[in-house]
Amino acid sequence: MTSKNNEIPYTLSQLVLYFLKLGAVGFGGPVALVGYMQSDLVEKRKWISLEDYKEGLALSQLAPGPLAAQLAIYLGYVHYHILGATLAGIAFVVPSFVMVLILGWTYVNFGGLPFMQSLFYGVGAGVIGIIAFSAYKLTNKSIGKDWLLWTIYLISAAITVITETESIFLFLGAGIIYWFVKVPPKFLSRTNVKVFLPLFLPLLQIFSIKNPDNLLKIALFFGKAGAFVFGSGLAIVPFLYSGIVKDYAWLNEQQFLDAVAVAMITPGPVVITVGFIGYLVEGFWGACVAATATFLPCYLFTILPAPYFKKYGKLPEIKAFVDGVTAAAIGAITGAVIVLAQRSLIDFYTWAIALIVAFLLWKFKKLQEPYMILASALVGLLIKNLS
User: What are the residue boundaries of the structural domains of the chain, listed by start?
Assistant: First the structure.
């Protein structure tokens, strides 16, 4: 970690403005968002080192909660500690939260989202093209030519495609295997890996409290969602469906699908759909409580282990462990792209949109993703109106 402010290549306000912009225009879901952070902060601006980025990605995959939000929090922590982590996380989430509040009000007052669902026909296909290209860049930059990392990557991708879930045990196992192969575990007792586990235990008990008050129910339910769901923001969707539609019956199936559609067509973290859901259930305060309860655990699970990652991350044992976890994480991300493509690319036109978007991003390096989203939306609307 850089210790002198004059050695830091950016100010805290610059970092906050970057995450405000990313939260406002960063389409494509968690896969695309982590790709944007690598491209913008590591490659183009060189504010964050590749090693710090990989450490943040590994920690974000190991800890429960939404991937992109946790990575933003960690990158804020790298040079500006708790204040940087807090402001980066808030800046990243606030723009999309405001958007879902507006959409929630529109939904409640004007009934349904048929126009948005038509819009999503093209947007969804464009998003697949964007995240596929982002996954390609992540793979190309992080895996290299190491045969073991490629093996971990491919196995992780295949398991994600087959099971359509992401498992913490897969990431842990990958890290341990790569660590044991690359750095024999004779220094195991000195790595302090066990220090992470006690940090999670107090929070596990907080969410077991029960209270009939509706806002407290919302807080407890979404707190559990943020604390116990691993992987990308997309991994939270099955958990939300089970509780919101089946257990509590707060929303019907169509309303829940509309909420997921809102998350996909708005920029920023996909998990911000919790704000839309909270608004439908209990208005403005429901949205605030749901969003806060979801993001607070991921914030704590990021900043509490962060000092240990910074202190011990350069040890050969820890570095090998992080490399293995990173390979599995990127494999899972690639697998998630395939799973999403299977659900979003439903005909010739959607396949064509996705492939054209990916090709254009590959061919023209300076092409901005928001323009591709807008073009995809217009093409989708045109196709829907003509068909």
Answer: 5-196+301-386
